[in-house]
Design brief:
The structure holds two protein chains of two kinds. Chain A is of the alpha/beta class. Chain A has one domain (2-228): Rossmann fold. Helices cover 32% and strands 29% of the residues of chain A. The two termini of chain A are 22 Å apart. Chain B is α+β, with helices and mostly antiparallel strands. Chain B has two domains: 2-43 and 231-352, no CATH class; 54-218, no CATH class. Chain B has helices at 2-10, 12-48, 74-82, 137-143, 179-188, 206-213, 220-223, 228-262, 264-273, 277-310, 324-339, 342-347; strands spanning 54-58, 86-101, 104-112, 132-135, 150-153, 156-163, 168-169, 172-177, 197-202, 215-218. A six-stranded mixed beta barrel of chain B has the order 2-3-8-4-6-5, surrounded by four helices. Chain B starts with a helix and ends in an 11-residue tail after the last helix. At the A-B interface, helix 1 and helix 2 of A face helix 1, helix 9 and helix 10 of B.
Chain lengths: 230, 358
């Protein structure tokens, strides 16, 4: 469903360039949670940014549903992100003025040529997803009225409300306590399996690794190890 | 507008504040525009009501035409009357003095014009006899005079033949006389008795005839620059209105720039989620438009209310030119100011939404 094929990414560093991602190849399959772990600065977030089409690789390709995202213009990449990718950010990144329900509804208001259809699809999915993440009773609360775990669950629902093929999750438990973190990881795993999403999840915290179906370890921008859960 | 409406609701205190500032500026602009319009009407309404396609004034060599200095000789009047293409040329004398009626005294503008010069509110005041005057409403009010009363002007008595509508010249109400009676009054003031302006109708070669006769020929509106009091008054008040327009654009622009900068992290998140640049720009401009329309609308309501109250005591004009035009101008300038904030929208980097950058 999503493939990073021999992808390399470098950044300018003074007069030279530093390699953040070095010939990485990895696959995210439908209905599977693929964890990407590694020490700080190993290139995990850069891999996620490449998968999210927020940056283009220096070489290699990023294939999403068979389409080469690395060849797209910025506008085309925005459309691809809106139509096929859901993103859960490290800090939940909810909009302060919107209620939990509106955080999901906004996904139907992002513009583009198929806005009316998206709005209808989102409207139909909002209640179901709020129910799925256990927040029906908090649908009219704003982020400031929710706990950290609840905010992250809203963010997960927001990422899934347009039924994306790919779900990208960036350190979802970093701001949560152990119990809330475990609940969030279980929720991501459950929804991935139920909805058949190809999920790439960046984490440095292997306490929650039981929720992962596969685990890729990245060190110095390279894939050091890949394992499948028993 | 999905996020914009909810931001307006969520941060209503801030938006009420900026809307209030816009409303206050609108009150200032609207009131000043109404006052400017009212003063302008008291200055020039009689000139704008003169008959003819163009007004001919004497033009001194090396100088510019002036209503207060102009005196057209019989040869200049004849030259215009005989010029090819001229259908009619009505000489009009203008002078300012005082008039009295049973102890009431008022400054008035004497207009000497033929009764058959045309059909405007001003020409309808023109009396048929040299011993009669026509009073504009302002003059009748100032002199407490009605039809049949006797008015004294420069030592001569005139019977009030008619009282008409409003007609003003240089902030004094108009009293109309026959050309002959006007010439006699002007001579009593030490003048030549020659007409001030010629109201010409037709299609002559305006520039050629004007150049040949040492005169200027302008449409009534453009001829207003020959009225010194109008020029200085409109110049000062217009400058104030223009400054207020500038302040309005700056205030709105500054507010939305700061507001959008505060929202830049949210904008980056929306971009990362797939929001189009167009939808984000429409959201930002739509939000500014809502604030501007609400603020300007509230301000204009206050202006209309105050204007209705003040119009009895002040020269205040409520017309599209003094309400709709300033309101639209403020909205457009405010949007232009808000457009400065769009740079933050277009440059917000969605990549910053990842990691712990927020």
């Amino acid at each position: 469903m999503i493939t990073l094929d021999d992808v390399t990414l470098t950044f300018p560093d003074g007069s030279s360039r530093v390699t953040a991602v070095d010939h990485v190849t990895l696959h995210g399959r439908a209905g599977v949670v693929t964890g990407i772990t590694g020490p700080s600065g190993s290139g995990k977030s850069s891999i996620l940014a490449l998968a999210a089409t927020l940056i283009r690789p220096d070489s290699g390709s990023v294939l999403i549903g068979g389409e080469d995202a690395s060849a797209l213009t910025p506008d085309e990449a925005t459309t691809l992100r809106r139509e096929r990718i859901g993103i859960v950010f490290q800090q939940s990144n909810l909009l302060a003025s919107l209620t939990a329900r509106e955080q999901l509804q906004v996904m139907g208001e992002l513009g583009g040529s198929r806005r009316a259809a998206a709005r209808t699809r989102v409207r139909e999915g909002v209640d179901e997803l709020l129910e799925a993440v256990g927040l029906s009773a908090h649908a009219d609360k704003r982020p400031a009225q929710l706990s950290g775990g609840q905010r992250q669950r809203v963010a997960i629902a927001r990422a899934l409300v347009r039924s994306p093929q790919v779900l990208l999750v960036d350190e979802p438990t970093s701001a949560l306590d152990q119990e809330s973190g475990a609940a969030v990881m279980d929720l991501i795993a459950r929804l991935t399996h139920e909805r058949g999403t190809a999920t790439l999840l960046v984490t440095h915290d292997l306490v929650h690794s039981p929720a992962l179906d596969e685990l890729v370890t990245v060190i110095d921008g390279r894939v050091a190890a890949a394992a499948t859960a028993a | 507008m999905f996020v914009a409406w909810r931001d307006l609701r969520h941060a209503r205190g801030r938006f009420i504040l900026i809307g209030g500032v816009v409303a206050l500026i609108t009150v200032l602009v609207g009131f000043l525009a109404g006052l400017t319009g009212g003063l302008a009407a008291q200055n020039v309404s009689a000139v704008l009501d003169l008959p003819g396609d163009r007004l001919v004034l004497q033009k001194p060599a090396g100088g510019s035409a002036s209503f207060s200095e102009s005196a057209l000789s019989p040869s200049e009047v004849d030259a215009w009357r005989q010029a090819d293409g001229v259908r009619a040329a009505a000489p009009v004398g203008i002078a300012q003095t005082r008039a009295t009626q049973k102890g009431a005294s008022a400054g008035v503008a004497l207009f000497g014009l033929p009764a058959d010069a045309g059909d405007t509110a001003l020409t309808r005041l023109a009396p048929a006899s040299d011993t009669e005057v026509g009073l504009s409403a302002g003059a009748a009010k100032g002199l407490h005079a009605a039809v049949g009363d006797t008015v004294a002007i420069l030592g001569a008595d005139y019977r009030v033949a008619s009282v008409g509508g409003d007609a003003w010249y240089s902030h004094t109400p108009v009293v109309a006389l026959t050309p002959e009676a006007w010439a006699a009054a002007d001579e009593r003031m030490g003048g030549t008795g020659e007409p001030t302006v010629l109201a010409v109708s037709g299609d002559p070669d305006w520039d050629a005839v004007a150049s040949r006769t040492g005169t200027s020929a302008q449409p009534a509106l453009l001829s207003l620059t020959a009225l010194e009091t109008f020029r200085s008054e409109i110049g000062s008040l217009g400058l104030m209105v223009a400054l207020l327009f500038g302040i309005s654009a700056l205030v709105v622009g500054a507010f939305f720039t700061v507001w959008t900068m505060q929202r830049s992290a949210d904008i980056a998140v929306l971009k990362a989620l797939g929001a189009t640049q167009r939808s984000l720009v429409a959201d930002a401009l739509g939000q500014a438009l809502v604030v501007l329309v609400a603020g300007i609308g509230a301000g204009m309501l206050v202006v209309l209310g105050l204007g209705a109250l003040a119009s009895g005591a002040l020269p205040f004009l409520v017309a599209p030119l003094t309400t709709v035009v300033p309101a639209v101008a403020m909205a457009l300038l405010g949007l232009a100011g808000a457009a400065v904030a769009l740079r933050t929208v277009t440059t917000a980097d969605p990549l910053t939404a990842l990691g712990s950058n927020r």
